[in-house]
Amino acid sequence: MKKLYFFVVSTLLCAIASAQAPANYYSSADGLTGYALKTQLKEIINSTNDGLSPEYTHNNQGDNLDGLYSISDRDIYYENDNTILDIYSENPTGTDPYTYDYGSDECGNYNSESDCYNKEHIIPQSAVNDGSPMIHDAHHVVPTDGRVNGFRSNYPFGVVDDSQLVSQSGISNPTMNGSKLGGNLNSGYSAGYTGTVFEPIDEFKGDVARMYFYFVTRYEDQVDNWSAYAMFDGTNDKAIADPFLNILLTWHQNDPVSQKEIDRNNAIFNYQNNRNPFVDNPQYVTDIWVSDPDIEAPTDPTNLVASNPTDNSIDLDWTASTDNVAVASYDVYIDGVFAYNTGNTNTSTTVTGLLADTNYCFTLKAKDTSGNESGFSNQDCETTTDNGSSGGDIDLFFSEYIEGSSNNKVLEIANFTGASVSLSIYTLKLSTNGNASWGSPYTFPSSSTIANEDVFVVANGAAAVCTSEYDDLNNAITSFNGNDAIGLFKNDVLIDIIGDFNSSANYAQNTTLVRKSTIDRPTTTFNINEWDNYASNNCDDLGSHTQTLSIVDATIKTISFYPNPVKSHLNISLKSDLETKIEIYDILGKLVFNKTISASATLDVQSLKAGIYIVKISQENSSISKRLIKN
Predict the structure, then answer these.
(1) Could you report how far apart the first and last alpha carbons of the chain are, in Å?
(2) 3-class DSSP state for residue 502?
(3) Closest listed residue to residue 420, CA positions, set 93, 177, 78
(4) Are 302-383 and 552-630 in the same CATH fold?
(5) How far apart are CA 257 and CA 6, in angstroms?
(6) Smallest Cα–Cα separation from 615: which of 605, 627, 603, 623?
(7) What is the tens place of the pLDDT at every residue in 8-40?
(8) Between 2.60.40.1080, 2.60.15.10, 2.60.40.1260, 3.30.70.20, what CATH number should domain 397-548 receive?
(9) Residue closest to 272 by CA, chosen among 19, 83, 76
């Protein structure tokens, strides 16, 4: 699994660590909306003394960006290897195809992708007539691969139609990290333009959008004097042409401000004395460019089909909704309960983290760029398979807990379900000092997964032990002490817990807990006997977890039953001759069926009423539970 580093502090960043927006920096814009707000923001960030208090003026540094990049554009977020962070080559979920060292790999001549890096003007120099300070403004000039920079040329940004990719020698399309050049898709939120566009990967689309919003605000008085550029509409107020405004608004919403952008904004403020208001206050985008509220909901999604079941996943496909502005994403509901948002306009998704041999019913709602929501789609149901990769209540669980000195607070979650699991439907919550309620949820980074027999590590941003093992940093969920409960939730239902909920008694203070290797599933009741105790700040086992099951534990995972849903007779398939107890409970927890078998058998369940039941299967001291639907 790719390690992500969002808050790691290094000597390189000490100079900018305190460079947040000064007090009252935006106070003169308070209460304003629409283009009046945009004009006021221009006065805050321009190079003119506008009589503001406080007054900060943009200080043009000329062609001296190289020194800034040594601070503002280093990779301390993904590989954490201090190489140049290039939005056209960074792979946020895997190994980068290539990397560049600051200074030594700067272009120069280039022939192919990965030769060297140079300066990419997100708003092309030709669009501003090579004017200064625009072409030296660090807020939109970033270091990128020279060949990809040349490939992008001065094309506008948009959504590429994969059937219209542009071919060019010396470079693949898409590029090595997935950026691409081609005809604009001209449908959905990117409708209205048919020319060639360049599309960065999803990780950096919001960054590009906020650079554009900054640029047309900072240079509001000059936009209408520049050469024709497809993304500009020739006005000073709205400035961005409708097709591209829809694209940038959608990217801004779907890719929120990252720690990388915050750090870069701070570094540039130290360098040229002005800030990007849309990084500091993302709401300004809506306040300015969506001043007339969009209250029209998208049409309902149609033709939803659930298919291709595995033990842990089901594919969904549907016909797209339409909207007066643009559809932005879809909400997925499982058995009538919200599960997750797709985060994009694709008309397919794979639902993961499901139980084996279980029937699920799905519906969808569409959401537009203003947050308006459609009605439900049609419902379609599908049953997961049972090929032995997962069983019953086998799921993700906490595998390590570090409550060490100072900010050394770390949580580890393990996956021994038999398949890779998406973290999109999982959250963590904290209950402090015996509080009878859970705090706000921590959500895992977008698109995060845990491979089978792998772990995911969340640590405090100031933790200083075993930092190479961290997958994410979050101070809120790791603000626990030895008397605070931490919960692992799936679809907002508690499945595993560390500590005693609604109790302020210390259970693990200044200590490290590692889940015993015999534990194979989560539990909603904390039992300290499931954990091995180690000294404070001990992280020898962090980043991996060992599971050693007994023969019974391993065998019970192979038990399956079918059909599900069932009408009259339920088949139980055993892979051993161990005595096996079959118990069926109704939705209220009442035992309605009980039988012991030692070989595969067929059970008569005709007497059960239609509804949902829980089947508990036990062998010796091990058991699994699965959901059964009776028609």
Answers:
(1) 42
(2) coil
(3) 93
(4) yes
(5) 12
(6) 627
(7) 222 223 333 334 799 999 999 999 988 999 999
(8) 2.60.40.1260
(9) 19
DSSP 224-240: GGSPP-TTB-S-SSS-B
Give the position of tokens 């439907």.
Answer: 425
Residue 205's pLDDT band, with cuts at 50, 70 and 90, is very high
Structure confidence at residue 386 as a pLDDT band (50, 70, 90): low
In whole angstroms, give the CA distance from residue 141 to residue 123: 8
3-state helix, strand and coil shares in percent for the chain, rounded to the nearest 5: 20, 30, 55
Per-residue pLDDT band at 577 (split at 50, 70, 90): confident
- CATH number (2.60.40.10, 3.40.50.11420, 3.40.50.720, 2.40.50.140) of 302-383 reads 2.60.40.10
3-state SS, residue 166? coil
List Cβ neighbours of 221 (8 Å cut-off, separation of 6 or more): 42, 236
In CATH terms, 552-630 corresponds, of 2.60.40.3080, 3.30.70.120, 3.30.300.30, 1.20.1640.10, to 2.60.40.3080
Side chain identity, residue 279: V
How many Å apart are CA 130 and CA 121, to the nearest integer? 11
Q: Where are the alpha helices (DSSP H) in 30-170?
A: 34-45, 65-72, 146-152
Q: Which is higher by pLDDT, 127 or 549?
A: 127
Picking from 449, 451, 469, the residue whose alpha carbon sits closest to that of residue 459 is 469
- DSSP assignment string, 255-312: S---HHHHHHHHHHHHHHS---HHHH-THHHHHHHT-S---PPPPPPEEEEEE---SS
Which token pair is 493? 């239902």
Q: Domains of the chain: which residue ranges?
A: 11-289, 302-383, 397-548, 552-630
Residue in 401, 442, 378, 424 with CA at minimum distance from that of residue 533: 401
C-alpha 257/C-alpha 282 separation (Å) is 7
Residue ranges in 154-255 assigned as alpha helix (H): 205-218, 242-254
Tokens of 237: 């107020």
Q: Please say whether the beta carbons of 123 and 215 come within 8 A.
A: yes
Q: What percent of the chain has pLDDT over 90?
A: 66
Pairing of strands 472-473, 454-459: parallel
**Distance separating alpha carbons of residues 482 and 123, to the nearest angstrom:** 51
